[in-house]
Amino acid sequence: MLSRLFSDVLPDVQRLAAGGWVEDSASEDSKTKDDCHLREDEMDDSETRASSRADSEMAGDDDDDDDDSLDDDEEEGGGDENDGDKPKKRGPKKRQMTPARAERSKVRRQKANARERTRMHDLNSALDNLRKVVPCYSKTQKLSKIETLRLAKNYIWALGEILRNGKRPDVVSYVQTLCKGLSQPTTNLVAGCLQLNTRNFLTEQCTEPGRFHVPSSPFAAHPYPYPCSRLASPHYQGGSGGLNIRSHAYGPGYEAVYPPGGGSPDYNSPDYEAPHSPPVCHNGGLSNRPGQDSDTDRNYHYSMHYSGLTTARAPAPHNLPFGPPGARIGGAHSENIPPFHDVHTHHDRAPPYEDLNAFFHN
DNA sequence: TAGGCCATCTGGTCCT
DNA sequence: AGGACCAGATGGCCTA
User: Fold this and answer.
1) Mind listing the pLDDT tens digit of every residue in chain A (362 residues)?
2) Which residue windows does the record flag with biased composition (Basic residues) (predicted)?
3) Core-most of A23, A101, A147, A191, by most CB within 10 Å?
């Protein structure tokens, strides 16, 4: 069984690796593959059923020829035994299903199914690749397809805004942008990514009220002071957890937080078509006390992908698109990144970010 | 148990 | 004819 599994998985992995991405999710796919085997077994059953259907369609054909031309000739004039009491149908006649034709049809269908499977696997691989470059990635808890696409769209839009505005957005508006149109769980997920980093900042680095310095996040991969009045506001429960982001659609008491002018994307822009997701709010249920709950731990499986801005190929750590323009930016602090077994650091990304980095470096 | 997500099968359509 | 693409149907798995 295992060898069968590997023999099936390996070609896929090799194919995907040849496509430019090294897939390391063979084990992850094992279940699916196994399932696939089961389904193939089922397919055998269905094929059997299909065959029996075909056989039933073949009722009355006793010539049993294997020749196509013969089939065609046959259908030109054949099958009229019962036409006496039935109105003649117009259009192309339904071909009589000979065993040979049924066999060919079956093989064709099997090949089509295999192609369709491959196509969908390729599509899923592309989606996996996309998951790796959007700002929240986990091997263990993957974003759904639709959420991946939405988040990717938001991410692109946010990056575009950064380029258009020429200034770094604050963390909250950035999260707002990313979470537009996302489901609440995904919103929490993205928020969790940020929360993780802000908590580290708060517990380890923050020494000055109202100053925001994130050590191990994309926001924080570089120690520069990041003023964020919101985080220092009464709404901010940073001392006990970090950003609390939640939709007020989940009940009263959740205060929407919007950046006070500037830096915030124009969600009404025609460029932005996402359905309006619940606004990103404070006061919500994401207030993780250090070491408090399992959700907190789960959030640790995620990393903000802006950490990718500090890739080895990126010129320097002053590539962070956040914080005050012109802020002094120090060295990278990848060593501050906690040892998440699941964390994705995007060292394999570079060119677009180098552009961005260069932009913010100037 | 309902709902969400997913993989797969299948038939239709379009294109080469 | 055959392949690519698509959408509907179906059933399994998982979670709240």
Assistant:
1) 333 333 433 343 343 333 333 333 333 333 333 333 333 333 333 333 333 333 333 333 333 333 333 343 333 333 333 333 334 444 444 556 677 777 787 888 888 888 888 888 888 888 888 888 888 777 677 888 888 888 898 899 999 999 998 988 888 888 888 888 888 878 877 777 765 443 332 233 233 333 322 323 333 332 222 223 233 233 333 333 333 333 333 332 222 322 323 333 343 343 444 443 333 333 333 333 333 333 333 333 344 444 333 333 333 333 333 333 333 323 222 223 233 334 343 433 333 433 433 333 33
2) 87-96
3) A191
In this structure, is the CB of residue A116 within 7 Å of any atom belonging to strand C? yes
Do β-strands A211-212 and A226-227 pair in parallel, antiparallel, or remain unpaired?
antiparallel
Distance A294 CA to C11 C1' (A): 32
**The model's pTM:** 0.48
Structure tokens at A147: 């959420």
Sole residue written with tokens 């969600």: A267
Contact predicate A161/A265, CB 8 Å? yes
Contact flag, residue A123 CB and nucleic strand B, below 7 A: no
